[in-house]
UniProtKB/TrEMBL annotation:
UniProt similarity note: Belongs to the very long-chain fatty acids dehydratase HACD family.
CC terms in the record's Gene Ontology section: endoplasmic reticulum membrane
Organism: Microcebus murinus (Gray mouse lemur)
Name the record gives this protein: Very-long-chain (3R)-3-hydroxyacyl-CoA dehydratase
Annotated compartments: Endoplasmic reticulum membrane; Membrane
Length: 244
């Protein structure tokens, strides 16, 4: 964990360099792109905040997580699907963002939306909470950076919360897919059986098993990417990144 004192000791110099970096970035992006990204990030922060408040209110009123997904699903689908805009638009790694966004879209549409019996699983709450806290922090980080007024605690939160939230989110996602397996096997949903006129077959059950297995090589890459970013941003380490 970063010590805030250690980071704070360097506060003045680091703030000045943050400001220079923000100005350079705005010049690089151009006025229209900066305006659009600022609007986009404010909208996304607000969207995920609405989701957080809706989840907290639901739990306080009902005292259970059952029915929670159903009550927030429209907002979740809208804002998570909107994140597709980020791949390619923002100056970030297409591979890293692509894996992150596609796994989320997959969880929202092809798992939780499509398989109603798993919507009340506790694991759904696990990834919903992890995603929501992450996205509020991440989008407010981008917004304040673009506006050139980044409070230190948001920067700190962006590069520390993931240490816990990433494993929690991934555990929630994997447990939810796991819970979906018996239903998928029983119904044969999204599967194509032979014989058919195109002579192709597809088994969603095995696809889910492969997807779960793909977390093993892919998740550590995202996690270590964030750890490197953390060292770079919070501790000023110079890190040479390999090209995608
Ligand atoms: C079809 C089935 C597919 C199934 C695939 C299955 C495999 C899945 C394995 C992986 C699973 C991940 C699951 C995931 O859903 C779990 C969770 O999210 S749990 C919750 C915790 N999560 C986190 O904490 C996420 C943390 N990770 C990140 O933030 C990411 O690394 C990522 C979002 C991908 C961003 O990575 P990157 O380092 O590239 O981003 P930066 O923030 O450093 O941005 C780079 C530059 O781009 C600028 N940028 C980016 N976005 C914006 C924006 N919206 N507005 C303005 N600017 C933006 C940013 O400022 C940087 O610019 P610069 O370098 O100039 O400073």
């Amino acid at each position: 964990m970063a010590s805030s004192e250690e980071d704070g000791a360097n506060g003045g110099a680091s703030e000045a360099s943050d400001e220079r970096e923000a100005t350079r970035k705005r010049r690089r992006l151009g006025f229209l792109a900066t305006a659009w990204l600022t609007f986009y990030n404010i909208a996304m922060t607000a969207g995920w905040l609405v989701l957080a408040i809706a989840m907290a209110r639901f739990y306080m009123e009902k005292g259970t997580h059952r029915g929670l997904y159903k009550s927030i699903q429209k907002t979740l689908k809208f804002f998570q699907t909107f994140a597709l805009l980020e791949v390619r638009i923002v100056p970030t790694s297409v591979l890293v963002t692509g894996v992150q966004v596609s796994s989320r879209i997959f969880m929202v549409w092809l798992i939780t939306h499509s398989i109603k019996p798993i919507q009340n699983e506790e694991s759904v709450v696990l990834f919903l909470v992890a995603w929501t806290v992450t996205e509020i922090t991440r989008y407010s980080f981008y917004t304040f950076s673009l506006l050139d007024h980044l409070p230190y605690f948001i920067k700190w939160a962006r590069y520390n919360f993931f240490i816990i939230l990433y494993p929690v989110g991934v555990a929630g996602e994997l447990l939810t897919i796991y819970a979906a397996l018996p239903y998928v096997k029983k119904t044969g949903m999204f599967s194509i059986r032979l014989p058919n006129k195109y002579n192709v077959s597809f088994d969603y059950y095995y696809f889910l098993l492969i997807t779960m297995a793909s977390y093993i090589p892919l998740f550590p890459q995202l996690y270590f990417h964030m750890l490197r970013q953390r060292r770079k941003v919070l501790h000023g380490e110079v890190i040479v990144e390999k090209d995608d």
